[in-house]
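Protocol check, entry for the methods section draft. Step 1: assemble the input record (protein sequence plus ligand SMILES). Step 2: submit for complex structure prediction. Step 3: store the C-alpha coordinates unaltered in the notebook. Ligand used here: S-adenosylmethionine. Step 1 record:
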Amino acid sequence: MNDTRALAAQCLADVALGGASLRERLAPAQAQLADPRDRAFLTALCNEGARWWLRFDSALDRLLDKPLRQREPALHALLLLGLVQLEILQLPPHAAVAATVEATRTLERGGFAKLANAILRRWLREREALIRQLDSNVVSRSAHPRWLVDMLQHDWPDQADSILAANNTPAPPMLRVNARRATREDVLAALTAGGTEAHAHPFLTDAITLAENTDITRLPGFADGHFSVQDGVAQIAADLLDLHDGQRVLDACAAPGGKACHALERANIELLALEREPARAAAIDANLRRLGLQCTVQVGDAGEPAAWRDGKAFDRILLDAPCSATGVIRRHPDIKLHRRSADVATLAHVQQRLLGALWPLLAPGGRLVYATCSLLRAENVAVVEAFLAAHPDARVETFELPVGQRPVSGWQILPGEGGLDGMFYAVLTKSS
Ligand SMILES: C[S@@+](CC[C@H](N)C(=O)[O-])C[C@H]1O[C@@H](n2cnc3c(N)ncnc32)[C@H](O)[C@@H]1O
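Step 3, stored output:
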Protein backbone atom coordinates (compact mmCIF):
# COMPACT_ATOMS: atom_id res chain seq x y z
CA MET A 1 0.00 0.00 0.00
CA ASN A 2 1.54 3.36 -0.94
CA ASP A 3 -1.03 5.63 0.75
CA THR A 4 0.83 6.61 3.92
CA ARG A 5 -2.30 7.79 5.72
CA ALA A 6 -4.18 4.56 5.07
CA LEU A 7 -1.17 2.54 6.19
CA ALA A 8 -0.85 4.67 9.33
CA ALA A 9 -4.57 4.17 10.06
CA GLN A 10 -4.25 0.40 9.93
CA CYS A 11 -1.13 0.50 12.06
CA LEU A 12 -2.67 2.84 14.64
CA ALA A 13 -5.91 0.82 14.81
CA ASP A 14 -3.85 -2.30 15.59
CA VAL A 15 -1.98 -0.40 18.32
CA ALA A 16 -4.80 1.59 19.94
CA LEU A 17 -7.69 -0.84 19.46
CA GLY A 18 -5.92 -4.18 18.96
CA GLY A 19 -3.29 -3.96 21.72
CA ALA A 20 -0.26 -4.21 19.37
CA SER A 21 3.06 -2.60 20.30
CA LEU A 22 3.70 0.59 18.33
CA ARG A 23 7.36 -0.17 17.77
CA GLU A 24 6.67 -3.71 16.57
CA ARG A 25 3.77 -2.69 14.33
CA LEU A 26 5.56 0.32 12.83
CA ALA A 27 8.60 -1.56 11.52
CA PRO A 28 6.77 -3.75 8.93
CA ALA A 29 4.62 -0.77 7.90
CA GLN A 30 7.73 1.32 7.24
CA ALA A 31 9.16 -1.49 5.13
CA GLN A 32 6.25 -1.01 2.72
CA LEU A 33 7.34 2.55 1.90
CA ALA A 34 10.32 3.26 -0.37
CA ASP A 35 10.62 7.04 0.11
CA PRO A 36 12.29 8.14 3.40
CA ARG A 37 9.94 11.15 3.56
CA ASP A 38 6.92 8.82 3.48
CA ARG A 39 8.50 6.69 6.21
CA ALA A 40 9.08 9.80 8.34
CA PHE A 41 5.47 10.90 7.80
CA LEU A 42 4.17 7.43 8.72
CA THR A 43 6.24 7.51 11.92
CA ALA A 44 4.96 10.96 12.83
CA LEU A 45 1.34 9.97 12.16
CA CYS A 46 1.57 6.77 14.23
CA ASN A 47 3.49 8.36 17.10
CA GLU A 48 1.27 11.43 17.33
CA GLY A 49 -1.86 9.31 16.78
CA ALA A 50 -0.94 7.14 19.76
CA ARG A 51 0.19 10.14 21.82
CA TRP A 52 -3.04 12.05 21.28
CA TRP A 53 -5.43 9.10 20.95
CA LEU A 54 -7.28 9.78 24.18
CA ARG A 55 -7.93 13.39 23.18
CA PHE A 56 -9.14 12.88 19.64
CA ASP A 57 -10.94 9.60 20.38
CA SER A 58 -13.06 11.66 22.73
CA ALA A 59 -13.47 14.30 19.99
CA LEU A 60 -14.79 11.62 17.61
CA ASP A 61 -17.37 10.58 20.23
CA ARG A 62 -18.68 14.14 19.98
CA LEU A 63 -18.50 14.31 16.18
CA LEU A 64 -19.95 10.92 15.22
CA ASP A 65 -23.57 9.88 15.74
CA LYS A 66 -22.58 6.22 15.97
CA PRO A 67 -19.12 5.16 17.17
CA LEU A 68 -16.95 3.44 14.54
CA ARG A 69 -14.13 2.08 16.64
CA GLN A 70 -15.54 -1.46 16.97
CA ARG A 71 -17.11 -1.85 13.51
CA GLU A 72 -14.52 0.02 11.46
CA PRO A 73 -11.30 0.31 13.49
CA ALA A 74 -9.04 1.46 10.61
CA LEU A 75 -11.58 4.07 9.54
CA HIS A 76 -11.90 5.30 13.13
CA ALA A 77 -8.10 5.61 13.30
CA LEU A 78 -8.04 7.38 9.91
CA LEU A 79 -10.52 10.04 11.13
CA LEU A 80 -8.54 10.45 14.32
CA LEU A 81 -5.39 10.92 12.25
CA GLY A 82 -7.23 13.57 10.24
CA LEU A 83 -7.66 15.52 13.50
CA VAL A 84 -4.02 14.89 14.42
CA GLN A 85 -2.93 16.30 11.05
CA LEU A 86 -5.03 19.42 11.63
CA GLU A 87 -4.21 20.03 15.29
CA ILE A 88 -0.84 18.48 16.05
CA LEU A 89 1.04 18.26 12.75
CA GLN A 90 -0.64 21.51 11.65
CA LEU A 91 -0.94 20.52 8.00
CA PRO A 92 -2.92 22.84 5.74
CA PRO A 93 -6.63 21.96 6.32
CA HIS A 94 -7.53 21.41 2.67
CA ALA A 95 -4.66 18.95 2.21
CA ALA A 96 -5.40 17.06 5.44
CA VAL A 97 -9.12 16.75 4.64
CA ALA A 98 -8.69 15.81 0.95
CA ALA A 99 -6.01 13.21 1.68
CA THR A 100 -8.04 11.66 4.51
CA VAL A 101 -11.09 11.39 2.22
CA GLU A 102 -8.88 9.79 -0.46
CA ALA A 103 -7.47 7.31 2.06
CA THR A 104 -10.98 5.95 2.77
CA ARG A 105 -10.85 4.61 -0.81
CA THR A 106 -7.41 3.05 -0.32
CA LEU A 107 -8.85 1.29 2.72
CA GLU A 108 -11.70 0.09 0.45
CA ARG A 109 -14.09 2.09 2.57
CA GLY A 110 -15.00 4.62 -0.12
CA GLY A 111 -18.61 4.51 1.12
CA PHE A 112 -17.34 6.52 4.13
CA ALA A 113 -15.68 9.24 2.01
CA LYS A 114 -18.54 11.70 2.52
CA LEU A 115 -18.65 11.00 6.25
CA ALA A 116 -14.88 11.61 6.56
CA ASN A 117 -15.24 14.91 4.71
CA ALA A 118 -18.22 15.95 6.86
CA ILE A 119 -16.55 15.05 10.18
CA LEU A 120 -13.31 16.90 9.48
CA ARG A 121 -15.14 19.95 8.12
CA ARG A 122 -17.38 20.00 11.17
CA TRP A 123 -14.29 19.92 13.39
CA LEU A 124 -12.89 22.92 11.51
CA ARG A 125 -16.21 24.81 11.85
CA GLU A 126 -16.83 24.02 15.53
CA ARG A 127 -13.21 23.73 16.56
CA GLU A 128 -13.16 26.30 19.36
CA ALA A 129 -16.21 24.95 21.16
CA LEU A 130 -15.03 21.35 20.77
CA ILE A 131 -11.57 22.20 22.09
CA ARG A 132 -13.18 23.90 25.12
CA GLN A 133 -15.15 20.71 25.80
CA LEU A 134 -12.07 18.49 25.44
CA ASP A 135 -10.05 20.76 27.70
CA SER A 136 -12.67 20.60 30.44
CA ASN A 137 -11.77 16.98 31.21
CA VAL A 138 -8.30 15.93 32.40
CA VAL A 139 -8.24 12.76 30.28
CA SER A 140 -9.07 14.46 26.98
CA ARG A 141 -7.01 17.54 27.92
CA SER A 142 -3.84 15.61 28.76
CA ALA A 143 -4.45 12.52 26.59
CA HIS A 144 -3.45 10.36 29.56
CA PRO A 145 -5.61 7.70 31.26
CA ARG A 146 -7.27 8.83 34.46
CA TRP A 147 -5.47 6.32 36.69
CA LEU A 148 -2.07 7.55 35.50
CA VAL A 149 -2.96 11.21 35.98
CA ASP A 150 -4.12 10.33 39.51
CA MET A 151 -0.92 8.44 40.31
CA LEU A 152 1.30 11.21 38.93
CA GLN A 153 -0.62 13.86 40.84
CA HIS A 154 -0.34 11.79 44.00
CA ASP A 155 3.40 11.04 43.63
CA TRP A 156 4.48 14.36 42.05
CA PRO A 157 1.90 16.99 43.03
CA ASP A 158 4.11 19.92 42.04
CA GLN A 159 5.48 18.36 38.85
CA ALA A 160 2.49 16.42 37.48
CA ASP A 161 1.52 19.06 34.91
CA SER A 162 5.04 19.36 33.55
CA ILE A 163 5.32 15.53 33.40
CA LEU A 164 2.10 15.32 31.36
CA ALA A 165 3.35 18.08 29.07
CA ALA A 166 6.76 16.40 28.63
CA ASN A 167 5.06 13.09 27.76
CA ASN A 168 3.17 14.91 25.03
CA THR A 169 6.32 16.44 23.53
CA PRO A 170 8.28 14.34 21.02
CA ALA A 171 11.87 13.79 22.13
CA PRO A 172 14.92 14.30 19.89
CA PRO A 173 16.96 11.15 19.26
CA MET A 174 20.05 10.61 21.41
CA LEU A 175 23.13 8.55 20.68
CA ARG A 176 25.77 6.87 22.83
CA VAL A 177 29.27 6.91 21.41
CA ASN A 178 31.16 3.59 21.54
CA ALA A 179 34.41 4.74 23.14
CA ARG A 180 36.17 1.60 21.88
CA ARG A 181 35.56 2.55 18.25
CA ALA A 182 35.37 6.37 18.09
CA THR A 183 35.60 9.57 20.08
CA ARG A 184 32.57 11.81 20.48
CA GLU A 185 34.39 14.49 18.46
CA ASP A 186 34.90 11.99 15.57
CA VAL A 187 31.22 11.03 15.59
CA LEU A 188 30.08 14.66 15.75
CA ALA A 189 32.39 15.57 12.86
CA ALA A 190 31.14 12.67 10.70
CA LEU A 191 27.50 13.53 11.44
CA THR A 192 28.04 17.21 10.65
CA ALA A 193 29.89 16.35 7.43
CA GLY A 194 26.92 14.18 6.43
CA GLY A 195 24.49 17.06 7.01
CA THR A 196 23.04 15.87 10.37
CA GLU A 197 22.80 18.52 13.07
CA ALA A 198 24.08 17.05 16.33
CA HIS A 199 25.30 18.35 19.71
CA ALA A 200 27.39 16.95 22.54
CA HIS A 201 25.31 16.51 25.71
CA PRO A 202 26.42 19.05 28.33
CA PHE A 203 27.12 16.59 31.18
CA LEU A 204 26.90 13.02 29.84
CA THR A 205 30.32 12.24 28.44
CA ASP A 206 29.27 9.71 25.78
CA ALA A 207 25.95 11.29 24.72
CA ILE A 208 25.01 13.16 21.55
CA THR A 209 21.62 14.77 20.88
CA LEU A 210 20.39 15.00 17.29
CA ALA A 211 18.36 18.02 16.22
CA GLU A 212 15.66 15.93 14.56
CA ASN A 213 14.44 12.42 13.85
CA THR A 214 16.21 10.51 11.15
CA ASP A 215 16.91 6.91 10.16
CA ILE A 216 19.82 6.34 12.55
CA THR A 217 20.87 3.08 10.89
CA ARG A 218 21.81 5.05 7.76
CA LEU A 219 23.98 7.61 9.55
CA PRO A 220 27.75 7.43 8.88
CA GLY A 221 29.45 5.19 11.44
CA PHE A 222 26.36 3.28 12.59
CA ALA A 223 27.14 0.09 10.66
CA ASP A 224 30.73 0.26 11.97
CA GLY A 225 29.53 0.36 15.55
CA HIS A 226 30.67 3.91 16.33
CA PHE A 227 27.45 4.65 18.23
CA SER A 228 24.11 3.33 19.36
CA VAL A 229 20.69 4.85 19.93
CA GLN A 230 20.18 5.37 23.66
CA ASP A 231 18.57 8.13 25.68
CA GLY A 232 21.07 9.94 27.86
CA VAL A 233 19.26 9.02 31.05
CA ALA A 234 20.04 5.34 30.42
CA GLN A 235 23.72 6.25 30.05
CA ILE A 236 23.89 7.30 33.71
CA ALA A 237 23.80 3.61 34.71
CA ALA A 238 27.41 3.08 33.55
CA ASP A 239 28.58 5.97 35.75
CA LEU A 240 26.69 4.70 38.79
CA LEU A 241 28.08 1.18 38.39
CA ASP A 242 31.59 2.59 38.98
CA LEU A 243 33.21 0.04 36.68
CA HIS A 244 36.86 -1.04 36.84
CA ASP A 245 38.87 -3.47 34.73
CA GLY A 246 38.67 -7.07 35.90
CA GLN A 247 35.33 -6.82 37.71
CA ARG A 248 32.70 -9.54 37.41
CA VAL A 249 29.45 -7.83 36.47
CA LEU A 250 25.89 -9.11 36.12
CA ASP A 251 23.28 -7.32 34.03
CA ALA A 252 20.25 -9.23 35.26
CA CYS A 253 17.60 -7.89 32.85
CA ALA A 254 19.78 -7.12 29.89
CA ALA A 255 17.89 -7.01 26.58
CA PRO A 256 18.30 -5.36 24.19
CA GLY A 257 21.68 -4.73 25.77
CA GLY A 258 21.95 -0.94 25.78
CA LYS A 259 23.36 -0.65 29.30
CA ALA A 260 25.33 -3.91 29.04
CA CYS A 261 27.10 -2.68 25.88
CA HIS A 262 27.80 0.69 27.47
CA ALA A 263 29.42 -1.07 30.44
CA LEU A 264 31.60 -3.11 28.04
CA GLU A 265 32.56 0.05 26.16
CA ARG A 266 33.69 1.61 29.45
CA ALA A 267 35.88 -1.07 31.05
CA ASN A 268 37.42 -4.53 30.52
CA ILE A 269 34.92 -6.42 32.62
CA GLU A 270 33.66 -10.00 32.71
CA LEU A 271 29.96 -9.47 32.03
CA LEU A 272 27.06 -11.88 32.21
CA ALA A 273 24.05 -10.47 30.35
CA LEU A 274 20.97 -12.35 31.52
CA GLU A 275 17.59 -12.09 29.81
CA ARG A 276 14.41 -14.09 30.26
CA GLU A 277 13.05 -13.77 26.71
CA PRO A 278 15.06 -15.75 24.13
CA ALA A 279 14.06 -13.47 21.22
CA ARG A 280 15.14 -10.41 23.17
CA ALA A 281 18.42 -12.11 24.17
CA ALA A 282 19.17 -12.47 20.43
CA ALA A 283 18.98 -8.67 20.17
CA ILE A 284 21.82 -8.41 22.73
CA ASP A 285 23.99 -10.67 20.54
CA ALA A 286 23.25 -8.51 17.48
CA ASN A 287 24.24 -5.33 19.34
CA LEU A 288 27.44 -6.91 20.68
CA ARG A 289 28.42 -7.96 17.14
CA ARG A 290 27.82 -4.52 15.62
CA LEU A 291 29.72 -2.78 18.41
CA GLY A 292 32.62 -5.27 18.45
CA LEU A 293 32.04 -6.26 22.11
CA GLN A 294 32.01 -9.58 23.90
CA CYS A 295 30.27 -11.00 26.95
CA THR A 296 28.28 -14.06 27.98
CA VAL A 297 24.62 -13.81 27.01
CA GLN A 298 22.38 -16.24 28.83
CA VAL A 299 18.65 -16.86 28.74
CA GLY A 300 17.38 -17.18 32.29
CA ASP A 301 15.10 -15.83 35.00
CA ALA A 302 16.82 -13.30 37.25
CA GLY A 303 14.47 -14.41 40.02
CA GLU A 304 15.79 -18.01 39.85
CA PRO A 305 19.60 -17.70 40.13
CA ALA A 306 20.03 -21.38 41.05
CA ALA A 307 19.34 -22.21 37.40
CA TRP A 308 22.17 -20.09 35.94
CA ARG A 309 24.67 -18.86 38.53
CA ASP A 310 28.13 -20.43 38.65
CA GLY A 311 28.70 -19.89 42.37
CA LYS A 312 31.13 -16.95 42.06
CA ALA A 313 29.98 -13.59 43.42
CA PHE A 314 29.59 -10.46 41.30
CA ASP A 315 31.37 -7.17 42.08
CA ARG A 316 28.60 -5.22 40.34
CA ILE A 317 24.98 -6.02 39.57
CA LEU A 318 22.66 -3.95 37.42
CA LEU A 319 18.97 -4.64 37.95
CA ASP A 320 17.25 -2.63 35.22
CA ALA A 321 13.93 -4.05 36.26
CA PRO A 322 10.79 -4.63 34.20
CA CYS A 323 8.56 -1.67 35.04
CA SER A 324 5.56 0.43 34.01
CA ALA A 325 7.83 2.46 31.65
CA THR A 326 5.92 5.59 32.69
CA GLY A 327 9.16 7.60 32.34
CA VAL A 328 9.56 6.93 28.61
CA ILE A 329 6.08 7.79 27.37
CA ARG A 330 7.43 10.66 25.26
CA ARG A 331 9.30 8.08 23.14
CA HIS A 332 6.72 5.27 23.47
CA PRO A 333 3.34 6.98 23.60
CA ASP A 334 1.43 3.68 23.27
CA ILE A 335 2.34 3.02 26.93
CA LYS A 336 -0.55 5.38 27.75
CA LEU A 337 -2.89 3.05 25.89
CA HIS A 338 -1.58 -0.32 26.99
CA ARG A 339 -0.61 0.02 30.63
CA ARG A 340 -3.28 -0.66 33.28
CA SER A 341 -3.32 0.62 36.86
CA ALA A 342 -3.23 -2.93 38.24
CA ASP A 343 0.12 -3.48 36.46
CA VAL A 344 1.87 -1.18 38.91
CA ALA A 345 1.35 -3.35 42.01
CA THR A 346 2.16 -6.51 40.03
CA LEU A 347 5.39 -4.96 38.74
CA ALA A 348 6.36 -3.71 42.20
CA HIS A 349 6.00 -7.26 43.47
CA VAL A 350 8.25 -8.57 40.66
CA GLN A 351 10.82 -5.84 41.33
CA GLN A 352 10.92 -6.77 45.04
CA ARG A 353 11.31 -10.42 44.17
CA LEU A 354 14.16 -9.83 41.70
CA LEU A 355 16.02 -7.52 44.08
CA GLY A 356 15.76 -10.07 46.90
CA ALA A 357 16.85 -12.95 44.65
CA LEU A 358 19.91 -11.11 43.25
CA TRP A 359 21.26 -9.62 46.48
CA PRO A 360 22.94 -12.86 47.70
CA LEU A 361 24.95 -12.93 44.43
CA LEU A 362 26.65 -9.60 45.21
CA ALA A 363 30.14 -9.81 46.73
CA PRO A 364 30.70 -8.12 50.12
CA GLY A 365 31.66 -4.50 49.37
CA GLY A 366 29.95 -4.83 45.98
CA ARG A 367 27.47 -2.44 44.43
CA LEU A 368 24.02 -3.08 42.97
CA VAL A 369 22.36 -0.44 40.82
CA TYR A 370 18.57 -0.67 40.86
CA ALA A 371 16.99 1.12 37.90
CA THR A 372 13.54 1.56 36.43
CA CYS A 373 12.18 3.85 33.74
CA SER A 374 9.14 4.38 35.97
CA LEU A 375 8.02 7.62 37.61
CA LEU A 376 5.93 5.89 40.24
CA ARG A 377 7.04 5.69 43.84
CA ALA A 378 5.52 2.23 44.25
CA GLU A 379 8.12 0.87 41.82
CA ASN A 380 11.01 3.01 42.98
CA VAL A 381 11.43 4.42 46.48
CA ALA A 382 8.92 1.98 47.97
CA VAL A 383 10.76 -1.03 46.49
CA VAL A 384 14.13 0.21 47.73
CA GLU A 385 12.86 1.07 51.19
CA ALA A 386 11.13 -2.30 51.66
CA PHE A 387 14.34 -3.98 50.50
CA LEU A 388 16.50 -1.96 52.93
CA ALA A 389 14.17 -2.78 55.81
CA ALA A 390 14.61 -6.52 55.14
CA HIS A 391 18.38 -6.48 54.43
CA PRO A 392 20.53 -5.06 57.24
CA ASP A 393 23.70 -5.65 55.17
CA ALA A 394 22.44 -3.22 52.48
CA ARG A 395 23.05 0.52 52.44
CA VAL A 396 21.76 3.07 50.00
CA GLU A 397 24.46 5.40 48.68
CA THR A 398 23.81 9.08 48.17
CA PHE A 399 24.89 10.64 44.90
CA GLU A 400 24.30 13.85 43.02
CA LEU A 401 23.20 14.33 39.44
CA PRO A 402 22.98 17.67 37.65
CA VAL A 403 19.26 17.09 37.00
CA GLY A 404 16.43 15.34 38.77
CA GLN A 405 14.68 15.04 42.07
CA ARG A 406 15.97 13.35 45.16
CA PRO A 407 13.41 11.24 46.93
CA VAL A 408 14.58 9.70 50.21
CA SER A 409 16.27 6.67 48.63
CA GLY A 410 17.69 7.03 45.16
CA TRP A 411 17.34 9.62 42.45
CA GLN A 412 14.41 10.35 40.14
CA ILE A 413 14.81 12.09 36.81
CA LEU A 414 11.49 13.28 35.43
CA PRO A 415 10.88 13.30 31.66
CA GLY A 416 12.19 16.44 29.98
CA GLU A 417 14.56 17.34 32.84
CA GLY A 418 17.96 17.97 31.23
CA GLY A 419 16.36 16.94 27.92
CA LEU A 420 16.24 13.35 29.22
CA ASP A 421 13.68 10.57 29.60
CA GLY A 422 12.36 9.72 33.06
CA MET A 423 14.34 7.21 35.12
CA PHE A 424 14.90 6.15 38.73
CA TYR A 425 18.23 4.98 40.09
CA ALA A 426 19.27 3.69 43.49
CA VAL A 427 22.78 2.54 44.35
CA LEU A 428 22.93 -0.18 47.00
CA THR A 429 26.17 -1.36 48.55
CA LYS A 430 26.75 -4.49 50.62
CA SER A 431 28.72 -4.29 53.86
CA SER A 432 32.11 -6.07 53.71
C1 LIG B 1 13.95 -2.46 31.13
S1 LIG B 1 14.29 -3.76 30.07
C2 LIG B 1 16.04 -3.82 30.12
C3 LIG B 1 16.72 -2.84 29.22
C4 LIG B 1 18.22 -3.09 29.12
N1 LIG B 1 18.84 -3.08 30.43
C5 LIG B 1 18.91 -2.07 28.23
O1 LIG B 1 19.48 -1.12 28.73
O2 LIG B 1 18.89 -2.28 27.01
C6 LIG B 1 13.89 -5.13 31.08
C7 LIG B 1 14.25 -6.47 30.46
O3 LIG B 1 14.12 -7.46 31.48
C8 LIG B 1 13.62 -8.63 30.92
N2 LIG B 1 13.07 -9.41 32.05
C9 LIG B 1 11.86 -9.27 32.65
N3 LIG B 1 11.76 -10.13 33.68
C10 LIG B 1 12.94 -10.81 33.74
C11 LIG B 1 13.44 -11.84 34.59
N4 LIG B 1 12.70 -12.34 35.59
N5 LIG B 1 14.68 -12.29 34.38
C12 LIG B 1 15.45 -11.81 33.36
N6 LIG B 1 15.01 -10.85 32.51
C13 LIG B 1 13.78 -10.36 32.71
C14 LIG B 1 12.61 -8.15 29.90
O4 LIG B 1 12.33 -9.15 28.95
C15 LIG B 1 13.33 -6.93 29.32
O5 LIG B 1 14.09 -7.32 28.22
